[in-house]
Design brief:
With 754 residues, the chain is an alpha/beta fold. 56% of the residues lie in helices and 8% in strands. Strands 3, 4, 5, 7, 8 and 11 form a 6-stranded mixed β-sheet that branches. A 3-stranded antiparallel β-sheet has the order 6-10-9, with no helix packed on it. β7 and β8 form a beta hairpin. α15 packs antiparallel against α18. It is elongated, with a radius of gyration of 30 Å. The relative contact order is 0.09.
């Protein structure tokens, strides 16, 4: 074989061109990628560049004899292909070149070609006829270091809790008996309480640390143990205890909060009613004030006005009951009242009926029940009276005069629970993705030769596309939920409308994402994913309810959209003519952007991976949807349609506004976080994950962007290709990325993941 015909600078390109022509990889756009790489390669002289460019001519491809010479050159080098290297084909090509030429060195342009063509070395290694080291993943990134970056603020507390979970009582096992599951979960709850974990969010005076952010992280980690334990933990310490802490006054704190944190007083949160679902303001249970004995009479007026799906109902001694407060014959709106349910012997008290909800799709370790009240009398002191109280003369008083504002202020104090639900759903997705990825790094399936070891599941582009974008989105949502909880913790004012709007949309988007991700993971594990021992089935069933409790997602997206429209209207009203001009200017610039071919056809990597592009695209969608929704509602109202009916007519439009708002919020907060990182190696990784998430979101809404003219068909196709290529690019690091979720290995008990 005549090596003289190949210059030293051309040698590293030979394996690439062999793969390209052996498998006919080159499309027009991919030819452009290779041409650019050759053009920018300073190690090549003019003759080398001319030769390589000649080999890119699809109308005059290299002769078969030439391609066979390339194969012989590669085979004779006796170089090993290591699949787990960060750039396997580039590393292999460099070693081949070194075999023939000591002066040949690293060629950065080959990395660009490998990244942009999405070449899978394991799919082409049989072409080389060389030894292949089939290591399933790279250790270029360290999962522990990633975890430390993601959880830096509370890492010490989180790690202490992870160590605590090694206790035998938290060991996961299959549970098919409802009563045994409930008994185990209750014992686990009591152990958590005895060590102070349940009271974390309470003030120091009541056994806590005033640390709701760490509390939320604890809740998330309990999902890794058992979804039922996490939910029971949330009901006892978050909902019941949280209602006392946030809606009660000092007397309630002194009487009940410490006992609640220690689980000496078990309680439940009785808000939802069978007949009224998400409509809290429309609940029918009443609390009527009787002045002569300073009492409140709690009553369920109708058969379907009972409290429904109440967690901890069968174990509780007390309930935080939401009811219409009637004072002097006037309805003062929904308030919370502490109502004893059982005596010391655990007998249900007179006038109260509690019925087990029975078996559910999941969470059967949680004792959900229905509760009816028949003229149950409690002292007026049991009214949680931070925002509304009854004075000694029997008159109602509140610093918040408007009933609507008072109602939403009360509910706003409970937003923390909604954040925890989103964190819990995301935790279930993280565990499922971890199991599916680790399975895919062990399980082999198919090949084109019985003599060659079968391919790993995660080496298939389809499998990568199923799982790796979900890893990226999980990272984005992890950071976003941390930021959300931090904002909630720092907001000490009673007005929580802004954070409530943010949480409403994010909770909906994140829980829906989790449900879809877990289902994809189940399918990605085949029949093994269907076995209870592999955890995904339980994670799927336990987290499914998260899309509807703490607010039905469809309702929450409308709440988020109304918040966006309210801000839109306030901005216009406050700014007057100037704001109108600003809106018109924005519309005009948007129009220019969408009809500008230079922008709508821009497909280079630097542009498509740029956070500014992702932010601009998503923000453009939000602005357009908000603008058009507002105009539609205004048009209906001008025609005489009542505002409520006008909103109903654009209900599906509002859902898109809510989603778009949440997507903008998520990508903005994520990139803000990444921009502040100091470790360049991991900062680049986080940007890659952000790019994969951002492009996936834009790809999901490609139809809308195409309709608007924001994307051309060429750019839409390029985005699809970039999603696929980023998934391939991140594939060697999949194991490190799921380890970066910080799930302790002893909790990843699925046999297929070990």
């Amino acid at each position: 074989m005549d090596l003289n015909k190949y210059g030293n600078s051309i040698l590293p390109y030979i394996p690439f061109f062999y793969v390209i022509w052996s498998d006919d990889l080159l499309s027009a756009s991919e030819i452009e990628v290779v041409k650019i790489a050759i053009k920018e390669d300073k190690s090549l002289n003019k003759e080398d560049k001319k030769q390589l460019s000649t080999w890119l001519d699809k109308s005059n491809p290299p002769k078969n004899s030439e391609i066979k010479q390339w194969q012989q050159l590669i085979t004779n080098s006796n170089v090993t292909l290591v699949e787990s290297e960060a750039y396997p084909l580039e590393a292999f090509s460099r070693k081949v070149a070194k075999f023939y030429c000591d002066s040949c060195d690293t060629n950065e342009q080959l990395k660009e070609i490998e990244l942009n063509l999405g070449i899978q070395p394991n799919h082409y290694s049989h072409l080389f006829n060389v030894e292949v080291v089939q290591q399933p993943f790279s250790n270029f990134y360290n999962g522990t270091e990633i975890d430390a970056i993601l959880n830096k603020k509370h890492l010490e507390k989180i790690n202490a809790f992870r160590s605590f979970l090694k206790e035998d009582i938290f060991k996961w096992n299959i549970q098919t008996d409802k009563e045994k599951a409930r008994t185990k979960v209750l014992k686990q709850l009591q152990v958590l309480a005895s060590k102070g974990w349940g009271a974390l969010a309470y003030p120091n005076a009541y056994g806590g640390e005033g640390n709701i952010e760490s509390y939320a992280s604890i809740f998330e980690h309990l999902i890794f143990v058992d979804g039922s334990l996490a939910v029971k933990f949330g009901v006892q310490f978050g909902l019941f205890g949280g209602s006392i802490q946030n809606l009660g006054s000092k007397q309630h704190h002194d009487n009940y909060l410490k006992a609640t944190g220690e689980a000496n007083l078990l309680g439940c949160f009785a808000m939802t009613e069978t007949g009224h679902g998400s409509n809290v303001r429309g609940i029918k249970t009443t609390a009527t004030y009787i002045h002569k004995d300073r009492s409140l009479v709690i009553h369920t007026p109708g058969k379907n006005d009972n409290k429904e799906y109440i967690g901890n109902a069968l174990h509780s001694k007390m309930a935080s009951v939401f009811a219409q407060l009637i004072v002097n014959g006037k309805n003062k709106g929904v308030h919370a009242i502490l109502v004893p349910l059982r005596n010391k012997k655990h007998d249900v008290l007179e006038g109260i009926t509690i019925v087990d909800n029975g078996y559910k799709l999941g969470l059967n370790g949680v004792d959900n029940g229905k509760i009816w009240f028949n003229q149950v009398k409690v002292p007026v002191e049991n009214l949680l009276d931070k925002y509304g109280r009854i004075d000694d003369e029997g008159n109602y008083e509140s610093e918040i005069k408007k009933p609507n504002k008072r109602f939403f202020t009360m509910l706003g104090t409970l937003v923390g629970g909604r954040i925890c639900v989103a964190k819990g759903a995301l935790a279930a997705a993280k565990m499922s993705i971890t199991i599916a990825v680790k399975h895919a790094l062990q399980r082999r399936q198919f090949n084109d030769s019985l003599k060659v070891q079968e391919d790993l599941l995660l080496d298939y582009p389809t499998h990568q596309l199923r799982l790796i974008p979900k890893i990226a989105t999980s990272y984005v949502y992890h950071i976003v939920l941390q930021k959300t909880m931090e904002s909630y913790a720092l907001n000490t004012s009673d007005d929580k409308r802004k954070i409530e709007t943010q949480v409403a949309g994010l909770k909906a988007c994140i829980t829906w994402f989790a449900t879809k991700a877990i289902q994809e993971c189940r399918e990605a594990c085949g029949g093994k994913g269907y076995l209870l021992e592999n955890r995904i089935a339980d994670l799927k069933n336990d987290s499914d309810i998260f899309t509807t409790f703490e607010g039905d997602n469809t309702v929450l997206l409308q709440l988020a959209a109304k918040g966006v429209l309210s801000d839109f209207r306030s901005e216009l009203n406050a700014g007057g003519f100037v704001s109108v001009l600003k809106l018109l200017r924005t519309r005009f610039s948007d129009k220019l952007a969408t009809i500008n071919p230079a922008y709508s056809n821009k497909t280079d990597k630097a542009h498509l991976y740029n956070p500014k592009f992702h932010l601009h695209a998503m923000d453009y969608r939000l602005r357009r949807l908000t603008d058009t929704a507002a105009m539609r509602i205004r048009g209906y109202i001008k025609k005489g349609v009542p505002s409520y009916q006008a909103f109903l007519k654009v209900q599906t439009h509002l859902l898109e506004v809510g989603k778009a708002y949440s997507e903008v919020l998520a990508i903005k907060w994520y990139y803000d976080f990444v921009s502040k990182q100091s470790n360049g190696k991991y900062k680049d990784l986080l940007y890659q994950l952000g790019a994969l998430h951002g492009l996936s979101i834009i790809r999901k809404d490609a139809t809308w962007y195409l309709e608007q003219g924001y994307l051309s068909s060429t750019k839409s196709k390029a985005i699809r290709q970039r999603v696929e290529r980023l998934s391939t690019e991140l594939r060697p690091h999949a194991n490190s990325l799921v380890d970066g979720f910080g799930i302790p290995q002893f909790l990843v008990t699925a046999p297929i993941a070990n």
